[in-house]
Amino acid sequence: MYEYGAARSVWVVVAAVLALLLTGCGGTPTASAPPPPTPSYGATFLGAGDCAARGRAFTEVPCTSERAVARVSVRSEGRRAGGAAGCPLDTDFVLYIGGEGAAGYACMRNLEAPHPGDPGMGGGPFTVVGDCVYRAGAGQVKEAPCDGSGANAPEFRVTSSVPRRPDCPASTALYVELPGGGEGVGCARRL
Questions:
Q1: Which of 81, 91, 145, 170 has a CA 20 to 30 Å removed from the CA of 105?
Q2: 20-72 tens-digit pLDDT
């Protein structure tokens, strides 16, 4: 009987160990890794104050990311009526956004220089006082960097803005439409 009782005790211990191993000690199951955090940049893709990174396409990233290159100053939803209407005059570029529920545009400002939207830098969506331009065809001008570093040399500098052409100074050689706001007519002198 002694042998039978010892064998029975061994089997009871083995069965208990197997039961513990198979049930995981009876604890509550836990996930092996927490789920990845979901982005919380905002309800709108590239909303005001959000930042973007360049790649094959612009993507929304935290403004603290080393990939962030520009910040949204103004976000307009819906159709892009009027181009960049509503953007600040120092906007560096306008990002047109397509897609269902997110269509519109974002007025973007680079986080670091260069800032093409600054006067004299040769870019940005608006021509403003301080910008330089060159003739690009019949009745058209395009911006060029005032320092001459661009592909086209600057020919004129916008020195003031006025409500009407007759209000420009006598030294005006070219009248430039200022669609970005201001008084409407840019008075430009030859460089």
A1: 145
A2: 555 555 555 555 554 444 444 567 889 999 999 999 999 999 999 999 999 99
State the pLDDT confidence band at 77, using cuts at 50, 70 and 90: confident
Sequence-separated contacts (24+) of 87-90 with Cβ below 8 Å? 87/125, 87/126, 87/180, 89/117, 89/126, 89/128, 89/180, 89/181, 89/182, 90/115, 90/117, 90/118, 90/124
Residue 42 CA, distance from chain mean position:
13
Assign 179 a pLDDT band (cuts: 50, 70, 90).
Answer: confident
**CA angle, 141 then 144 then 146, to 5°:** 125
Q: Please, what's the largest Cα pairwise distance for the chain?
A: 125
Which is nearest to 50 in space by CA: 66, 63, 59, 38?
Answer: 63
pLDDT of res. 35: 45
Neighbours of 177 (CB within 10 A): 11
